[in-house]
Amino acid sequence: MNQQKFEQSYAIKFWVKLGESATVTYEKLQRAYGEHSLSREQVFRWHKSFLKGREQVEDEPRVGRTSTSKTEDIVRSDRRLTLRMISSELNLNRFTVNKILTQDLDLRTVCTKMVPKNLTTEHKVNRRDVCLDLLDRLEREPEFFIRVITRDESWILEYDPETKRQSRE
């Protein structure tokens, strides 16, 4: 449990003991923590559990919850793993594994491989240099862009020299 969430659960417990309502408790947390405060649903859930006599302020352990780092280690260890293989190894359904990979780890499929969506610093510098070169050329040749054929933008990140066929093997 992170420090701010820990502090907020103590504050909720304190305000419950003082007889504050869940709404007032939520408003006070909003003033104190701003955008880092717990959501309304979380505050109301904690408030209700403290009203029922809960004393513990830490989250209860979640059974069966997959460690994201474990999933990331598995994916990075062998990029040829399929969703089915990962889900059977972790004993999770494919939908959950797909959600962890795409939303939590921010990965996407490229030629049946999961790779990071974020560009490296080198890629960003390369893009900037290409744009500066194009601007320079446009200043020298004002008619330059008339000769350029355009279409929908698609960025393709070169990841690995293996072909699709080699990747499947």
What's the overall average pLDDT, rounded? 77
Beta-strand level of the residues, as a percent range? under 5%
* CATH-derived architecture of the largest domain: Orthogonal Bundle
Radius of gyration: 25 Å
Residue windows where pLDDT falls under 50 for at least 5 positions? none
Largest sheet: 2 strands, antiparallel
CATH topology of the largest domain: Arc Repressor Mutant, subunit A
Helix content: 55-70%
User: How many H/I helical runs?
Assistant: 8
Question: What is the CATH C-level name of the largest domain?
Answer: Mainly Alpha
**What pattern of helices and strands is seen along the backbone?**
HHHHHHEEHH
How many structural domains does the protein architecture include?
A: 3
Q: What class do helices, strands and sheet pairing give? A: mainly alpha
Distance between the termini: 42 Å
What is the number of beta strands?
2
Q: What global shape is seen?
A: flat
Describe the structure.
There is one protein chain. Helix 1 (3-17) packs antiparallel against helix 2 (22-33), helix 2 crosses helix 3 (40-51) and helix 5 crosses helix 6. The mean pLDDT is 77. The chain has a two-stranded antiparallel ribbon with strand order 1-2. The protein starts with a helix and ends with a helix. It folds into three domains: 3-51, Arc Repressor Mutant, subunit A; 68-116, Arc Repressor Mutant, subunit A (Orthogonal Bundle); 119-150. The chain has 169 residues and is mainly alpha-helical. It has helices at 3-17, 22-33, 40-51, 68-77, 83-90, 94-104, 121-140, 164-168; strands at 107-110, 113-116.
